[in-house]
Amino acid sequence: MEEKDLKEESNKKNGTQKEKKINFFKKKEIWISVIIGLVLGAAIIYLLGILGIPGLGHETIMTFKGGRITSNEIYNEMEKYFPISYVLELADKEILNDMYKLTDEQKQEINEEANSILNMYETYYGYTEENFLEENGFKTKDEFIEYMELDYKRNLYCIDYFKTLIPEEDINNYYNDNVYGEINTKHILVKTSDTVTEEQALATANEILVKLKNGANFDDVADEYKDKVTTENVDFDNFTEDSLAEAYVEASKKLEKDKYTTKAVKTDYGYHIIYCINKADKPTLEDVENDIVEVLGKNLESEDQYIRYKALIKLREDKKLKFSNKDLKEEYDKYCEQVNSSTDTNTNASAAE
Fold first, then answer.
1. How large is the greatest C-alpha to C-alpha distance in the chain, in angstroms?
2. Where in the chain is the domain with CATH 3.10.50.40?
3. Rounded CA separation 230/41 (Å)
4. pLDDT in tens, 61-71
């Protein structure tokens, strides 16, 4: 049994992998136009009109602390965007690039996530990389990754915003009660199937346990029963455990290094005998604070599904974002007013994601 099989047990409860199709990679700011009625019309025609093209030059469209956006910057790529959406993307990119410098590790994480998304679309929907990029408004994979980096930085800001709303005591309590180091395990699984009943699988698992209790080596026993069992290494920590079978996680937490479960652990797949290879030391609060805030932030999002949009509005306010163009300012003011007055958590926000 592979690690992904354990993870699929959780996926059964929340829908299949195929239902996880991602639809928020349109080249636009986190936008809820369908929900709040900001239908902007044909972007290029509208933008040509309000900016008086030709003769754009370098007219300042909006300013913020430390920079500005010119009409020329908008025109260079305006065929891909609704105008207000694109200018906000430009502003956020400039603001957030100044606030957050990504490490090589973070960039690698983003690249891996991008590849994972492309692979998922190919596997489940038959998209080629070119199909995916074209449908979502990206000319190249580098452009897609650039947007992923912007989305990553927006998330970093939202986490910082959540920190201002979540009591420090809650963060400390979560750290004390839930955080532990990475756990490295391996297991022997006796699967149940149409030809192997639960009773038969449990009997085989108990047979293996007797051999282990009599001093047999874990790997040797796994090899001895290789025609009846599946073996695999499974590594996890408190921030990945939700994707694994709960019974497997809980049993692993109780094990000391170089110890195995003395009773077979039942999951939907059969009976596991789990061996703890290693347990890492508990990370510092500083190292995991963002992860904790992101977990606790889900409670804030359940109370107000627009909270991330409101966070970005606050970011722009803090950076003194101002529109020199009257039409863009009116569109943005309308957007802010409707977002800030929206708290209905039952409204479908799929178009905004």
1. 86
2. 181-279
3. 57
4. 677 777 776 66
